[in-house]
Give the backbone structure.
Amino acid sequence: MKLYFVRHGLTKINQAACFNGGQSDSSLTMDGKKAALSLGKQLQQVKFANCYSSPQKRALTTAELVMSQNKVTPATTPIIVPQLREMNLGEWDGTPISQHQHEAAFNDYFQHPARFPAEKIGAESYVALVRRGQLGLKKFFLLINVSYEQQIY
């Protein structure tokens, strides 16, 4: 079994150099849509059993565009796995990245995740993110009827 993990295409919030976390749901830019279609063309001969996505619009749109180019997989609607939502960045979500570069938490967010003081900005900690992600993966493996423990190494 092969798994393909795809990050969403470029969004308007990405383009504005703002934090694009779990509370913001910016649309894809035209370049983001073109990139998703291009990836879809590269994967057009890959037969997928299913397509899974975060519930966020940017991820769903990316999944739909990628799958729209597929020539061997029957038309499928992405299956939403809520636990795949991006990290909640609290007060930072949707704000300019440059606005926070002077904050101590900024360096921790990017360089020292274990020290990131998420609670200070109402954000999700990396520990909580990992737990949620693991729950999402367990749900995914249950959906495809494969043991989670056998697949994660």
